[in-house]
Amino acid sequence: MPTDRPESLPVRSITLRAPHRNPGSGRPCAGAGGVAARLVRIGRVVLGTVALFAAVSGLVSPVASASTTPPTDAAADAATPAADATTAADATPTSSKGVNVIEVTGYIDPIMKRFILTSVDKAVSDGVEALVIQLDSPGSLLTQRELDALEKSLRDEARIPIAVWVGPLGARASGGANRLIAAADVVGMAPSTRIGNSTPGVAGDPLVGRRYTQNEAVKAGLAQSNAPVLVQFVGELDGRTVAGKTLDTAFPATEADGKLTAKVNAVRFAKLGLLDRLLHTAVNPSVAYLLFVIALALFVFEFFTGGIGIAAFVGLAAFVLAVAGLGNLPTRPIGVILIVIAMAGFAIDVQAGSPRFWTGVGTIGLVAGSFTLFADGIRVPLYMIGVMVLMTVLFMVNGMPTMVRTRFATPTIGREAMIGEVGTAVDGVGPEGVVRVLGAPWRARTNRATPIAAGAPVRVVAVDGLLLEVEPLEGGAKDAGH
């Protein structure tokens, strides 16, 4: 009996390897054919999404159809803010006049500017008493010339009174949004709202260089109303004289059960159309940043998993919205480049199958890109950066490799599948010895009385615990027809 035999050898499992994979790695090959096919598939998704986007752009109008609310009890609405959009069922207007109300939220970008000017024209054509702007904006993304033109259009060229109500509770008007207040004929503010900007600016402009609370603005004459809800502000416009015109926004007060009430005339609400609303929502630092990172991560996912294009489609939709947002925001190219490099670094280690050097590069690049993405004092909230960096790293380090292995892993089956495999006797098998099958050494014994010499070819005929039962390749039971 040879003395160099191992006392125990592990039983190995067989792996059946699918085509187009790196042997032994379970990872997809990066062959030119596979890469080209994936790029073609992603390209088709891109063209389809662009075509769909263009079609929707042509079908959706910038201003959605206005909704009209009949008169409502101003006293009840003042007590219940939710009543701004509701009306008494038994109240019916007796006048076609009223006011048009639009909501201006978020940064004032070109989309919002067009919406405001279009709403002015519509209010004139509707013949309403005034256009009311409900304002809650952190600033403007327009150039100085565009802001000047917008203010001039509202203050000097509009053929209808313009009223601005800063609300609801906690709203603000900062930066360029104050130009709407400067152009308004009447200004109202809800409690806990503020206007102005702490950044020094043009001398003599009370809205630049200082912030005003509701009470401070009213005392300074910058606001004429402290109405807590919009419908009350509209009611307070009644009887005001603007540019020689006395506004008629409420019915005469009536007394019932000793209570004096006044009903507001018809209020028509208008909002951005669907597509413009999506694009305007994207013009938000947090949303644009979120969409950009998600889009790049989905592109990496689509490339490595070889799916049917759903991830690429969703990623491209997010990418289009992200580009729309980043294009209107003061975006630094270095921030964009760092985030792209970060995703490329993660992708390299996804291909490698485990986090290595490039995972660290990707993490550092993503953090640096997140903090340097925007200029002019615009920042993504710190908590959002932390959440996005953590989720991206976990997705790339743990989620992506797991999905890639699931998609491309070589299935492992039991050792019984070794029956019929051919190998070589490492040393004499008589009756036990060592054979090499599928490139690995195994303890084996012959199932026949005849010993097998070292180097002779053998065939596996059975598996018994930790031993392979083998027979000579020639002259065995299979050759004999048994």
Topology of this protein?
Layout: E1 14-15, H1 32-59, E2 67-69, H2 74-79, E3 98-105, H3 110-126, E4 130-136, H4 144-157, E5 162-166, E6 172-173, H5 178-183, E7 186-189, E8 194-197, E9 210-213, H6 214-219, H7 230-236, E10 241-242, E11 245-246, E12 254-256, E13 259-261, E14 266-270, H8 274-282, H9 285-305, H10 310-328, H11 333-352, H12 357-371, H13 382-408, E15 412-413, E16 422-425, E17 432-437, E18 440-446, E19 457-464, E20 467-472, H14 477-480
Explain how this protein is built.
With 482 residues, the protein is an alpha/beta fold. The protein is 41% helix and 18% strand. It is built from 14 helices and 20 strands. The protein has helices spanning 32-59, 74-79, 110-126, 144-157, 178-183, 214-219, 230-236, 274-282, 285-305, 310-328, 333-352, 357-371, 382-408, 477-480; strands at 14-15, 67-69, 98-105, 130-136, 162-166, 172-173, 186-189, 194-197, 210-213, 241-242, 245-246, 254-256, 259-261, 266-270, 412-413, 422-425, 432-437, 440-446, 457-464, 467-472. The strands form six sheets. It has a six-stranded mixed beta sheet with strand order 2-14-3-4-5-7, with helices on both faces. Strands 16-17-18-20-19 form a five-stranded mixed β-barrel. The chain has a three-stranded mixed beta sheet with strand order 6-8-9. Helix 1 (32-59) packs across helix 10 (310-328) and helix 9 (285-305) packs parallel to helix 13. It is rod-shaped.
